[in-house]
Amino acid sequence: MKYEGAIYRPPSEAHSLILQVAVGCSHNRCTFCGSFKDKKFRVKSFEEIKEDVDEAKAFAKHVNKVFLADGDALIIPQKRLVPIVELVKDSFPRLERIGVYGNVKSVLKKSVDELKALREMGLGILYLGVESGDQVTLDRVCKGTTLDKMEEACHRVKEAGIVLSVTVLLGLGGVERSKIHAEETGKFLSRIDAEYMGALSIIVVPGTQLARDIDNGTFQVPDPYMLLEELATMIEHTNVTHGFFASNHASNYLPIKVWLPEQKEKALRAIRHVLDQKDPSLLRPEYLRAL
Questions:
Q1: Which residue in 156, 220, 261, 276 is a FRET match for 49, CA 20 to 30 A apart?
Q2: Per-residue pLDDT tens for 100-145?
Q3: Which domain holds residue 277?
Q4: Residue 256's closest CA among 280, 286, 238, 231?
Q5: Distance between CA atoms of 228 and 253, rounded to whole angstroms?
C-alpha cells in the first residue's frame, strides 16, 4: 500500500483495510488540528487506487471492512467516487461496510439520492467532526461552518440511511467558554439525535494555531477535572432517542461507554465520583494520552 504521510482513522476502524483515496484534508484550517498540515490536498488517480486494491486483494483476502482515507474522502466528486466505491465492493466478496470521514461541505455537496447510491454500494458509516455546539467556539477554531448547516448535513446523512458517527472535543472552548461549550454541545447532539457520539479531549499539537494561541495567552486549556465537568455537563444536556456515547478515546482522562438515555445516570455517577475524589490515580496518566 503506497500511503502518503501519516494515516489517521477512527477507533472503530481498527480492523479495517485502510485505503487512501485522497491525500490530506480538503478544509485543513482548524486551529487545533495538526494531522494534515504537511499535506497538500489531492484526490488520488483511479489507477493509483486500483494498484493498492490489487495489492490488498493479494495479501488480505478476507477483508470485510474498508475505510477510505484521508481526512475527507467524501469531498471526491460523485462521478469519481462511485467507480472507487464500486471497485472496493467488487474486489472484496466478504465486504460488510465501507467507512469514510466527511465534513459539512462535502456532505452538502451530495444530494440525498447521491448519498443513498453510495450507501447501496456499501458506504455504511460516515464520521463527522462536530467538535462543538457553540458557534462562537466553532468560529474561533476556524471550523468553517455554521450549526444550521451542520445540522442539515447530519440529517441528510441519516435520511440516506448511512450510520452517522459524530465526534466532539472536550476543552475546545478553553477555560473561558468551558461551561457554554459543554451545554451547547449537548443541546446540539440532541438536535441531530445522534446515533453514535464520541468525545475526545483536547491535546495541544505543536505547530498549530492553537499552540500559538496558548503561547500568546489568548487560550487557556482546561485542567483534567474541568474537562470532566464538561463531560458531565455535556451528557446532562444530551437528550437523544437512542444513541451510544463514548469517551474511551486515548485522549480522554476517564473512559465512559454508555447508551443514552438509558444509562445517563450511570455515566454521571461515574464522573461525579472521580470529581468528588479528586484522586489522580483514577485518571488516565498524562503519558498514556494520545491522539
A1: 156
A2: 999 999 999 999 999 999 999 999 999 999 999 999 999 999 999 9
A3: 11-285
A4: 231
A5: 8
Q: In whole angstroms, what is the distance from residue 102 CA to residue 123 CA?
A: 12
Cα distance between residue 285 and residue 287, in whole Å:
5
Looking at the domain assignment, is residue 59 inside a domain? yes
How many domains does the chain divide into? Answer: 1
CATH (domain of 208): 3.20.20.70
Task: Please report whether residue 112 resides in a domain.
Answer: yes
Residue 133, in any domain of the structure: yes
d(C-alpha 27, C-alpha 163), whole Å: 23
Residues linked to residue 65 through DSSP beta bridges, in sequence order = 97
Domain-located, residue 3: no
